[in-house]
């Protein structure tokens, strides 16, 4: 059947393998829901819907566990040995199947896991699987505006139809909640971090309240990004100084008003004194002053404030790399208990490859939330086939060494390294009003992978890729293998034809689309491309060692040792930390110039290989989905050539060296 991608990974198409389908159908006869709560209601509804589709038969819901074998029993069991309240345990008991958890929320996650088990074609015979999330707050950050536009959104307009809310609830809100619950996402910030104060008005709060009502039965709490100047803008106060008693009272009152409408409201996300947004520094106060004021207002209701560390100084002679660390590390230990600091994965801004942010490991007394970008602002919008799990994993597995070997970013963020009481991971959403939610079908994999890794960062990129492919595209073994390989290599391919060897931030101005390495002037001086690549007659790259900005000093000595010597610095990070001569011989055996060309040319060529590999899966994939991905790959090929030629020809003006022989032929 034709499928335009709307159903995401929750497809529930009839299982094609008849023998397998019959096995499941015989084994699964009824659903026993036990007590009824809204979340158990969502769980049983989903099980019914899923099994109806997969098995082609109706599976009845009953209240009590009587009747014939083959029951799927949802069971709240406080004695269940699980790490926390959200975990679940799936197992077989005689001829029944138990979905067990300490809470109804655990049952919701367990039900989706049970369905996933069947969707991915696994046997029920020995079923015994437990899982609990490693991170408490697993959230999406939408950068959506009041007018329905999305900052850095590449899949249409906002999902939230503000003008129709609160009266009209688009059924899509429920499907959004189902998709998130299926991967364990339990929080969502519905508006842009560059926040309009209007979201806090009596005009918008009922709309937010209405969305919260749809998300609640799926275990998702709603959050708002706030504008720090709201006391002035909305309250008519003379100041928004966080130490002013009237300002503090304004936030206390506003917070009360919100909780009256949304008793389980999650809290505030704040971008302050960053890229022109207002904040406490406008009044000579610190980020901690600002965060603590909001934390105090939220504390009586159990809410949290999530304060972003994405700040920089626009100093053309400084190193933007160092800004967040310099600003926030001295504040460690000064934040209230219900405040978290949200740190982007890398020190600059969601580039195709960045070293991990040096803040991870540097703030043992302050819970750090990790922010990834799912939307592909710097990774090819929705024309490029880029699977982001390897990027996410690269950061999570990076070793900060702050407490010796094995002090990974994952262990910082999941709280085990420093004993954080609160833990969180956020992903800047890639969803929009496009029929298939994410523009590129592969964007769905990134939403999926983010959720799965926020739940369990130990999962491998490969396991997630296979799981997603089976649920989304096909169960055909050969096709699954091909698509998995395509996914796993796609990010490195993208790095190669855009920013190889540690180049960064050389994309087009404003839109951030395509290459613009020649950009030398910008409203923000540390936003030009030449600021980052520093190409000159001698070489290319940003010296962040002692002879340069010394940003490396923000890392533990062991990390510095890995990256500070240009002879041994791994090539993916080379130009992040070193200015390297064009004719320098690298560990690859090529000169820097030849290696750079090699990466650009091979990277662009890899897209042709991706097209060939994708063509092989045609018989196994829905024709509309197949055509859509094929079309976007063709666009990606065009963009790859553009990147390659723009960068190679521009950098050649400095290197004055010939393009290596193998690449001196027309395409
Ligand atoms: C990037 C992005 C902005 C966004 C900012 C942020 O700079 O281009 O659109 O507002 O990140 O994360 O706050």
From TrEMBL:
Record field: catalytic activity: Hydrolysis of (1->2)-alpha-D-(4-O-methyl)glucuronosyl links in the main chain of hardwood xylans; D-mannonate = 2-dehydro-3-deoxy-D-gluconate + H2O
Catalytic class of the enzyme: lyase
Involved pathway(s): Carbohydrate metabolism; pentose and glucuronate interconversion
Cofactor(s) listed in the protein's UniProt record: Fe(2+); Mn(2+)
Ranges of residues in domain Glycosyl hydrolase family 67 C-terminal: 438-661
GO cellular component: extracellular region
Swiss-Prot/TrEMBL GO biological process terms: glucuronate catabolic process; xylan catabolic process
UniProt GO molecular function: alpha-glucuronidase activity; mannonate dehydratase activity; xylan alpha-1,2-glucuronosidase activity
Residue stretches making up the Alpha glucuronidase N-terminal domain: 8-113
Enzyme Commission identifier(s): 4.2.1.8
Glycosyl hydrolase family 67 catalytic domain segment(s): 118-437
Keywords tagged on the record: Carbohydrate metabolism, Glycosidase, Hydrolase, Iron, Lyase, Manganese, Polysaccharide degradation, Xylan degradation
Family: Belongs to the glycosyl hydrolase 67 family. Belongs to the mannonate dehydratase family.
Function, as annotated: Catalyzes the dehydration of D-mannonate.
Quaternary organization: Homodimer.
Protein name: Mannonate dehydratase
Full-protein residues shown: 413 to 1079 of 1095
